[in-house]
Amino acid sequence: MTGSTAAERPRQRGPRGGDADTRGDILAAAAEAFATQGYGAASLRGIARQAGVDPALVRHYFGSKSELFVEAMRPLRADDAAVTALLATPAEQRGEAFIRLALSLWDDPVIGARLRAILASIAAVDDVGAAFAQVMMRDVLLRMVRPDHAEDRAAACATQIAGLAMGRYVLRVPSLADAPVERLAAIYGPTFQRYLDGDLDLSD
């Protein structure tokens, strides 16, 4: 028999349809493009080319560039073991537990780099901030808060952790940048806990 075997042949590039790996291929190509080129320089067409798919498939799976960016770069997904463990934490301890989890992700070299890229893009592109907040609220925060005023509670939690991350990892505020995780969990955890399940005075 002549010619190369299927295992030896290089993967064929070009437009292709919705096989089971297509979405994952797009996410992998997007993560690489955003990490190496930045949000502004990376293009959906270039990402599609790298993934070996038609550009229309990128929009089919992810809608917009900002949505693809958040999906490719986000550190947690709804079914992750870390999220499952967080939701299994006693309700009265989740404030500090969430702060610990969030900071452990930021401190991870790979995940932290992705999160810093998101923060930098939020400052420049409005759609990125909205998309990231929606994902975080849907996958984690709305599953943790009390049902009354759930959207308000989740939004307060999202802004709390975003502000802490900006101060610690981007602005490098000394008291935040150099603080142990447990110290920050003790400082921010009670406020976060109140947003999760405390009484909120939202009367008109």
TrEMBL record:
Ranges where the HTH tetR-type domain occurs: 20-80
InterPro entries tied to this protein: Homeodomain-like_sf, HTH-type_TetR-like_transc_reg, HTH_TetR, Tet_transcr_reg_TetR-rel_C_sf, TetR_C_16
Basic and acidic residues: compositionally biased ranges: 8-22
Region annotation (Disordered) ranges: 1-22
DNA-binding region: 43-62
Cited Pfam families: TetR_C_16, TetR_N
DNA-binding among keywords: yes
This protein's UniProt keywords: DNA-binding
GO terms assigned for molecular function: DNA-binding transcription factor activity; transcription cis-regulatory region binding
Protein name as catalogued: TetR family transcriptional regulator
Species name: Demequina lignilytica
